[in-house]
Structures are given as C-alpha cells and as structure tokens.
Amino acid sequence: MSLQAITVPPAHHPPKGLIILLHGWGANCEDLPPLAKFMDLADYQLVFPDAPFPHPYNPVGKMWYAFPESYSFLGTPEFGDRPDLSTSRQELLDFIVDQAKQAGVSLSQTILGGFSQGGAMTLDVGLRLPVAGLMILSGYLHAPLQPQQPNLAPILIIHGRQDAVVPLHSAHQVRDSLQALGAPLHYQEYDMGHEIQPVVLSQIQTFVKEILTSS
C-alpha cells in the first residue's frame, strides 16, 4: 500500500522545507490544499496525503483508523496497538521519509501537521522521526505518549474552545502530556469550533517560517 497525495510545489527550487499536512476522519487529500493559497508559504513544498482506509459513511472520505462506539478522544494504552492504526503509522512513517527524499530536503527541514484525527496521527508518528516541528490542529491523543519518544521538536497546538467534536479537555491532555516530556510548546486556544479559521492559518505560517528559518 502506498499513500496517494496532492503536492503543491514551491515557487522556486529547491524548497526551503517540506510541510506535510494530514486530513481528519472522513475527509480526504483534497480537504486541506485549498488553504495553501491563504498562507505565504510559496518557498516550501506542501504535501497532503490520503489516509489509507475508506470511510464507512462517506463514499469519497478516508480515515487513518476506525473509531469504536462512544469514543472519548482521551488516549488509552491499548488503542495504540489497533491493526488499522498500526498500518497507518507504518505507511505514514515510510511516506514522510520518502517525501523528504523526493523534495531534496532532510527530515530536519520537514514539518508534520494534521487536523483532528490527522493531528492525532501527527503526534503518534511525528515524535518517532527527527522532524523540525509538529502542528496539532483540533487534535487529541489516541494513546498515551511514551517517555522514550526520541524527538521533542517544537510543537504548535491550536484548539477551539467551542469544539463540539474533539472536546477542549483533549487538547489539555495533549498539552499536559507533552509538557511532562519537556517538549517545547506553543499552545493556543481560540473562540471557534472544530475548524481552521484564518487566525489558525496565520499561526501555521508564522510557526513554519520561525522553525524552518532557524533550523
């Protein structure tokens, strides 16, 4: 299995860095690319992969893994061993390494981010690779973080106070878990729901430029 993706190439080669953004549950690789034109990131290569599994209710949707009944968005240890999650994890790890090679950049010039379930996958996979930074947008932990996670790159966490899908306390769990590991965090809450508003795009743009300019 190989992940399909939409790539927005840089205005000039080589790119200053690679940005990989993961969609949420039920969306697909076409969900996030329209946001690229609202950010001043033309010097970077942006990649938007499809999750590997079909969505059970949306015929064009994808998912990184299925949700059990009454899912709480608070990580449990056994959840990390789910077969569908394990498959997505390995596919995504291989994909990120391959995309960096194709773009001609190192993992230290790569930022991984994701929305909702894509944010949970970002936490799961991004802490296993020496990437430059992580962006968690309306995300959560699907399994507790492990103390031996090798990479503690800068992490941007943004969540809506009125999020009716992934509750705010899930973002607090992410924040507190990462702080306990000593990760450098930029945590921000906004008066919004489960969405990506223009102010979030501004935060993403600033974070990318700060991290990849200084790396």
Automatic annotation (TrEMBL):
Residues of the Phospholipase/carboxylesterase/thioesterase domain: 8-210
Matching InterPro entries: AB_hydrolase_fold (IPR029058), LYPA1-2/EST-like (IPR050565), PLipase/COase/thioEstase (IPR003140)
Coiled coil: none
Highest taxon listed in the record's lineage: Bacteria
Molecular-function GO terms, alphabetical: hydrolase activity
Keyword Hydrolase attached: yes
Any one Pfam family match given in the protein's UniProt record, by short name: Abhydrolase_2
UniProtKB keywords: Hydrolase
Assigned protein family: Belongs to the AB hydrolase superfamily. AB hydrolase 2 family.
Protein name from the UniProt record: Alpha/beta hydrolase
Naturally occurring in which organism (per UniProt): Oscillatoriales cyanobacterium SpSt-402
